Fold these 4 entries.
Entry 1:
Amino acid sequence: MAEFTGERVVPGQVAPDLWNEHISRYAFAARLAKGRRVLDAGCGTGYGSLQLAASAAHVLGVDLSGDAIDYARRHYAVPNLDFLQASCIRLPARDAAFELVTAFEVIEHLPDWIDFLQEMKRVTCPAGLFLVSTPNKAYYGASRGAAEANPYHVHEFEYADFQAVLQDLFTHVRMALQNHAGGIVFQPVATFTGAEAWMESGAGTPEEANFFLAICSSTTSIEIPTLVYIPRSANILREREEHVSRLTSELEDKDRWLQEALGERQKLVEMFRAQNQELEEKNRWAEQLDAQLGQARQRIADLQNELAEQQEAARRMATGYEEKVRELEADSRRHAEWALESERRLGAELEARTAELEAKCNELAECVRLLHRAEATVEERTAWAGKLGRQLREAEVLLAGVRASRWVKLGHAFGLGPKLEHD
């Protein structure tokens, strides 16, 4: 179900007067739809397109709202009626495609309403008719009073403005007024055999009209007789009595609400008195706070004076400290200069000692080298001595053998052979 917002008409969800305002426009247009190709621009939920399709050759209902088109397709499925979701500013239709175009309560919702009118002229054939309606800005401005403007309306028209913009585009423009009118109806009970309407002349003026409805054409001038639309439940006195009954019920509700509000008012008065008493106590408390605040301010002034004296003493102390710091800095510079001089002197001595140490190291290295050479010589002599020792022991063994030999002894006895020394 499409949502009723107060602007888009959903059958069964609107008040009778609002429904009659909308459906009566299609009753007015239906007299011109017979056998024609019809476009219902801004068709909404499609109830008016269905009424046009009763006599038209074919009707196309177009609306930008997908919800409205879905509602129309579900509820109004007849062979010569189609619905399309599209913008009325850019219709997917060829030039001069329709013989009758209706656009009821659409133009005031569009910021680019001039483009809308040009598009309606494009799709209307030269001999066709364009029916367009809009609320009377002057009437609705006065009826709203201090209330805010309709948030759904972008541009509203007065009679002369509406007629002028249409005459700029169409050669023939006929203006009609749409109003709620009181009347007396005589009708048979059992059958309906048609109706005649009698209307006093001068019954309405553009300034007082609820709505304007214009019949526009590029080539055809047409005069439309007055239409009196009588809804099925058109007993105004009974409707007024029911309306009075509803107002009476609402008045009783408001009286009851007023009594409740008066009771709430008494509670509010008592609450106000209690709050007023509490406020007086808080005022007295505030006065005490003011007195304490004055004492605190005096104490602050005294502390500020003490602080100023302490700051002056601190300034003098700081001046003394600064002088002492300058003296310490001078001593520090002297000590630094002495340290630098000592560092230079010690550096020179260190370099001399380093050179002397290097010489001693070189001398020691030479001694070590000579010592290594002497050790090598000792080792060589030791090896040579060891070799001589072995040779000597071998000679001693040989000598002992010779001495023990009986041949040597025999030779000695005969004075032959070498003479060997005895131990």
Note: The first strand starts at residue 37 and ends at 41.
Entry 2:
Amino acid sequence: MKLEQADNSLLFSTTSIPDAFFTEYFPQASGDSIKVFLYLYFLSKYGKDIKINDLSKKLNLPLKTIQDSIKYWEGLGLLIRKNSGYEFANMQEIELHKLYNPRVTQSAEQIKNTEKNQYRAKAIETINNEFFQGVMSPSWYGDIDLWFSKYSFDEEVMVSLFRYCFNRSALHRNYIQAVAEAWSQNNIKTYEDLDKYYAQQEALSKMSKAISKKLGLNRQLSQYEEAYIEKWVNDYGFNMNIIELALKKTTSKSNPNFDYINKVLSDWHDRGLKTPEAIEKFLADMKQKNKDIKNIEKKTGYNNYSQRSYTNLSDLYANTPDSTN
């Protein structure tokens, strides 16, 4: 009697995936990409050969989705193209290089600064516990060290950076890097700087809403319109009282726009007009000059346009109502 044992190796086998996959790649990948990755990773253990079309049928995914998913993982360096197909990279080695390379760039001064490193370690521990449930990937430590060095953020700002991105469901490196760059360009280094920046942004938001309401705009302002407002407030130092005077100059315009308002406010800024009183006086003088010219033209019957050369924007204030009306 011949006894044979059934081949149950596939039934009882397991596919081991490094934790680095879940900490580094899983949160940002799409569901379809993860589905493709896991099945390919499973097949690679057995050295199986499968065609893209067959894979599409097996996973019940469109062919383009399969192709895009493979390109996605290839772009991240987890799939390496070979002549005969693909090979999976060693995720632990990738993360080890990420962890090692940034740390060798630290200066001796940074290493010796024990007190500073203690505060920094506490901030990193807070980030780990608050945003990564205590299982932050080792590669994040190197990135945080580099951001500390590059942007000179204090510990509270660094924690606030992660909290800002976490609250927007965008806790991935590219987004954090972009926000950090924006904060740095606004000269944020301490929490006091950040608090001042938040207050400034809130003031700009209120200003934008007030201007939209004054102009009767039932839409969100464009990026360029927001940039105009930021210039009027931050660069020119104008408050709403002054900006509203410019908004009133649009009442005679059939299609008022921010470009026109910007020309008016820029003209006032160039003339050094910094208060509503100074602007009111300038507008009154401008109106009187326009009246005087019209009276002269009416009496003489001669249109001497050269008399209007008292301003390089002669048409800017022409035929507009007085702001006091």
Note: The longest strand covers residues 79-82.
Entry 3:
Amino acid sequence: MKKTLLLITIALTAFSLAACSKEESTKPAAQTTQAAAPATTPTAAPTTPASDKSGGTNGTVVETMNAAGYTYVQVDNGTEKIWAAAPAFTVAIGDSVVVPDGMPMTNYHSKTLDRDFPVVYFVDSVLNASAPVPPAATGTKKPEGHPATTVAATPIDLDLSNIAKAKGGLTIGEIFSDKANLSGKEVVLRGKVVKFSPQIMGKNWLHIQDGSGDEANGTQDLTVTTNMTAKVGDTVLVKGPLTLDKDFGYGYKYKIIIEDAKVTVE
């Protein structure tokens, strides 16, 4: 009997020691797992787009740069400064621009510029209001704070006296006079380019004059948008649909404009 009790005691002691040994051997593994956990935590938030569009504003460009086919502008609207980016366009520090609503990219890193931006609003285009200055006589209302500007007068050495009316076409004065009936219809005219602004909102902007119309009433100058190029002084044949009361937003309105015109330099 004593021998049996002794054997039971030895067995229990051995089992207890084995259990303790097993428990201690598992503790370092648990501690190692906990120590490794922080290594899996991201060191920085990934660049992701916000869910809502915003950022629409107008103001003055205080910084600009080009990268990978995009133009970046930092715009000061008097209250805050925001960054916006659009397909490459012509702009300079001090220009007044209109930025439409766009998709904000937070924590954005530009590899080309090697620069981090807290937020950049990517938009289809930015209107450089300092380039295609809308004629005051066509009803343009400039955004608050926009610098005083006027449409460039016809250059002194630009002769408009010998411009022949296009075959089957109209003069600028006639287009203004009959604009209500011509709305939405294709018109043809010949004139000279008195101002050319490339790649604004993805288009080239021309101001055309032919010597007709009334400068005092602002009916001597017609705005045209096109994907074709020309230079100041060129005589051009313009063909395209006439649009009335065109509103590009933020107060930029035209009582009359020809959009996406076919322009032929003669």
Note: The chain has a mean pLDDT of 75.
Entry 4:
Amino acid sequence: MGRHLRGEKQVWLSMAVAGLVLAAGGRLPALADEMGAFDSKEALGEALFHDTNLSMNRTQACATCHDPSFGFVDPRPTEVGLAVSLGDDGVSLGDRHAPTASYARFSPPFHQTSEGAYRGGQFLDGREPHLAGQAGGPPLNPIEMGMPDKAAVVDRLRESDDYVTAFKALYGAEIWDDADSAYEAMRESIAAFEMTAHFAPFDSRYDRYLRGELALTDQEELGRVLFFSEQFSNCNQCHQLHTSPIAPTETFSNYEYHNIGIPTHTAVRAANGLPDDHVDRGLLENPLVSDPAQAGKFKVPTLRNVAVTGPYMHNGVFEDLRTTVVFYNKYNSRAPAAQTNPETGQPWGPPEVDGTLSLKELEHGPALDDQRIDALVAFMKTLTDQRYEHLLED
């Protein structure tokens, strides 16, 4: 691990260290001993991100539910497909779909705007203001990595001489004196890795189109125009961060919170043991939020890699990307096709939380016909990072 972070730099370092070893009569100098196996917080964070020893049964790492080979989501099937993730205990199932970790660093710190709306943060309810806080959550979650406390995680870290050396070199000799400090260093290192370009390469077909490296197909171009047009769709009401439609670092989320009327995923509830009348209150689960009007609202996700990171919505209730567009269309079209879930052939289920829907945004724009729905899906597929484009066909 770490090759993509270091590349030619690593080769140069290896040659330089080899020269120093020869000059020292075959012995590594003290400086190299102090550096250990990791020469940066990012490199240390990469190892921690992939380390299954940080879970109770040593079976699960950050990368298990945020697999770098699959758009940083969980590719492991369960009895409810890919809707939610299986915990380290091999039994527990979550109630929310693991969101992609790609482009997560662009979500601003959780805050309330001057207009009273909430924005940013990590997790679907923003309960961690920053990326490092998110990194520290799963190891202690009883239905995820399942460790009992921070001290237990730090004991696992101490099992690795490379970690012990690197933590001292990067955070100071006293870092191991206190479990809270060592745990914070672990969180910070993982966050440093997640801040690298590996998580946000901006090299999709759309990015290459913006740089003039390729042309979109007619269908993709129609979808692009529809997406950014307030006259022809409601997509950019929530899924546009920058004012310019050609911004080179567009993440396709304004990081606001909305209730769009997603129905309960009954199969997930039956599998994870939560009662049928359980309600996921979304933003209202955030300890910093107490306003009942925020119930059922979830953070607007990035659309980067959306075509390869399904199933969709906070509970994974929709399998197909096209279904999500049809679902949005139900608010503006009375056509029977728009009022029917194409995956079940039945009418859309009622919202899990009613009364707080973002109808202003949902009802903006005209109804969409099949041609325009297909064009929007085609455009969203262009937002797939280059290394995941093969997954579009899979």
Note: The longest helix spans residues 8-23.
